[in-house]
Amino acid sequence: MPVPDLFIIAPDFTVCEYCGKSYADTAENMHRVLIEKDGARRIHTACVHCIAKAKAEPDYDEYMTNKAFSEKLGRRLKNV
After folding, report:
1. Helix pair angle (48-56, 58-70), 10° resolution
2. Strands across the sheet with 75-77, in order?
3. Which of 15, 24, 50, 79 has the lowest tally of Cβ within 10 angstroms?
4. Nearest partner of 69 among 31, 39, 30, 27, judged by Cα
5. Distance between CA 32 and CA 75 in Å, rounded?
6. What is the pLDDT of residue 27?
7. Full-model pTM
């Protein structure tokens, strides 16, 4: 019987920069977010709960945008 090369005992955990809660670092919990402000763009990860809250509440969307640019979260994308 073949033995797999990789055994996943438990997934890695990560903390959402916006809400401060920890989640398993999987595709179901964390997604990439494109954040734009005044023509500048950054890409960063956020939990699905913060993304849903930002879609529902404009104030929370503004909070996420301001935090990403003030703390320089994620990676800056160049305008081409």
Report:
1. 120
2. 30-37, 40-47, 75-77
3. 79
4. 39
5. 11
6. 80
7. 0.77
- Name the token pair of 3: 């033995």
From residue 12, alpha-carbon distances to 25, 42, 74 in Å are: 5, 24, 19
pLDDT confidence band for 7 (50 / 70 / 90): low
Place of tokens 């879609």: 55
Q: How are the residues of the chain apportioned to helix, strand and coil, as percentages rounded to the nearest 5?
A: 30, 30, 40
Burial 30-45 (b: 16+ CB within 10 A, else e): beebebeeeeeebebb
Joined together, the tokens standing for residue 47 give: 């939990």
Q: What is the pLDDT of residues 46-80, one digit of tens each?
A: 999 999 999 999 999 999 999 999 999 989 988 76
